[in-house]
Amino acid sequence: MSSKNAIDTGKLLEMQKRMLRIRLFDERASKMVKRGYIPGTVHTSIGQEAQVVGACMALEKGDHICGNHRSHGHPIGMASPLGPLMAELVGKATGVCKGKGGSLHLADYAVGSLGESGITGSSIPISVGAGLSAQVLGEKRVAMCFFGDGAANQGVLYESMNLASAWKLPVIFLCENNHYALSTPAHTVTGGRIVDRAAGFGMPGVRVENGQDVIEVYDAVSAAVARARAGDGPTLVEVMTYRFREHSEGLRINVDYRNAEEREFWLSRDPIQIFRRYLTENEFFDDVTMDQIETDIAQEVEDCATFAIESPDPEMHVAFEDLYSDAYELEEAL
Amino acid sequence: MSVMTYIGAIGAAQHEAMVADERVVIIGEDVEANVYGTTGESKQRAESGDFVQQFGKKRIRNTPISEEAIVGAAIGAAMTGLRPIVDLSYSSFLYMAMDQFVNQAAKNRYMFGGQSSIPVVFRSAMFYGLNTGAHHSDRPYPMFMNVPGLKVIAPASASDAKGLLRTAIDSNDPVLTFEAVPIWGLKEEVDDNEYWIPFGVARTRREGTDCTVVGISGSLPLALKAAKQLEDRYSVEVIDPRTLVPLDSNSIIESVKKTGRLVIAEPAHRTCGAAAEIAAIVAEAAQPYLKAPIIRVTAVNMQIPFSPALEKFMYPTTEKIAAAIKTVCSA
């Protein structure tokens, strides 16, 4: 677990805090789905916190990310405030997208989150474009796209990897391999290893075997970020992880596509517990501090839920805004 | 003023925009070699005016044949500071990138509550009537009119092509411009200075009182010819909407209120075409003024055959438009 990078203790603590935020935010969201506060569909990142936070914390201010349907973790990983994210899930006026995006389409441009995509693989070329603008404008930023083992079989990934490699763009292709595209085991629909596909495009491919370890993810992504920022082009990073909950909240699948033994194996590899142990056993922090941040973040999540529930619904005119940068469509709509 | 071809005017607009704003880049297949004649002042690379020589390969970029990635990357680049012009060459190639047009370009600004701005232009040319067969002859602009969030323009003259393209490049929204190859060589007096033509403003090309003809894209010059042929018998008003989204409905409605008759000519397929939309708008807004049923002159709902003996019958012609004018005017 010990890092190749010298990570200051403040950053270590921040990693744990962001993982806790994702965990508690998504647990809370799951309850709010059951209680009817959150309409529509919700995909939690519970179990994948190390993969998300390790990747996001390897970035700097000004960098960009694009994401996918399992979407809450990415902006939280970039330190987006929880209130407007939860309000978005509930569909309120105070939502980060004014209540027009929902769980599948969070975006917080203030932290570099260019938007999550409900269409599998669809946001991948968007990140390539963010890399292109950085290169043309001579800005030292990088872009990272998150996609799953499912999206790894979309053709657009390979067009994007080729373009990024041919133009040496500062892009990190981050495959969140949680082993299942909904109920379909990745190995049954995937030829070879995803990471090995990098070689075909002349870029490095790195696989993080223990994606439950935030430091291992952080180190691998940091190397890819350094390479991108130096102008040496893109990297494919495949992180092996697992979602602890069902594909989406409320989904009932009668076939036991993930057996108990496998689930046990992964549940015993809880990224938050692993990292807490690491931080206390190596005496970075004591249990009192760790308990305190858990209490603090539980309160933060409680507050974001209250904020979301108590916020007003959007007013109807909002449905007719933001389609275009100018307002001509209103006339026809109303 | 100089006399310019339609394709020359597009090249001139691109050149002006490249000079005016360093954020403008041109990406597409074969743009470096100026294969289609819009990335150099002359088709001959060796002559002066070559875009690569002037602006460098950082801003004039050949792409791989990967429409989905090109379109997606242009959207992402637009969201993060560039103002890309994407040359997709043939309009039929747009389908390869449908997800990016419909799910990203059109939706991101709205879905993210106005956080994104997507200043990108997608140029493509409709190579119809040129015996290229069904895979290269499409006129698919109505499909994109059906996607809220996209702006769709279809200039039909050199001066409009230049001014509309400048406005498209300056727009903070994704714009698809459909260029009609049969009129690439059409010449017009064009202002050498920079100018911008606003979207949503139709151009009345000919005033008249008996019948309104709306001519779209490559059908506009045919409509003008038909009106000219019939000028001794009928006073025909010819309107070019120029931009389809936004559409200047008011100008068309006002014209129909004056003439009481409407013919709409366009090279796209009949079902759910721009002509169908305009007919519906006029029926809703000005039905009591109509003295005759509206007539659409469009491509037939059929794929495009290769043989010149067959293809020429598939699209509107001057004769078909003239016949429609006679029909509505004799009603």
Considering the chains and any ligands shown, give keywords for the structure.
heterodimer; A: 334 residues; 44% helix; 10% strand; B: 331 residues; alpha/beta; Rossmann fold; seven-stranded mixed beta sheet; 14 strands
What is the percent of helical residues of chain A?
A: 40-55%
Query: What structural category do the secondary elements of chain B indicate?
Result: alpha/beta
| Domain module tally of chain B | 2
**Estimated radius of gyration of chain A:** 20 Å
The level-1 CATH class of the largest domain in chain B: Alpha Beta
Mean pLDDT score of chain A, rounded? 96
In sequence order, what are the helices and strands of chain A, one letter per element?
HHEHHEHEHEEEHHEHEHHHH
According to DSSP, the number of beta strands of chain A is 8
Relevant CATH superfamily of the largest domain in chain B: Thiamin diphosphate (ThDP)-binding fold, Pyr/PP domains
Number of strands of chain B: 14
Tally of individual helices of chain A: 13
Q: Could you state the oligomeric state of the chains shown? A: heterodimer
The gross shape of chain B turns out to be globular
- Which CATH C-level class of chain A is it? Alpha Beta
Summarize the biggest pleated sheet of chain A. 6 strands, parallel
SS field, number of helical segments of chain B: 12
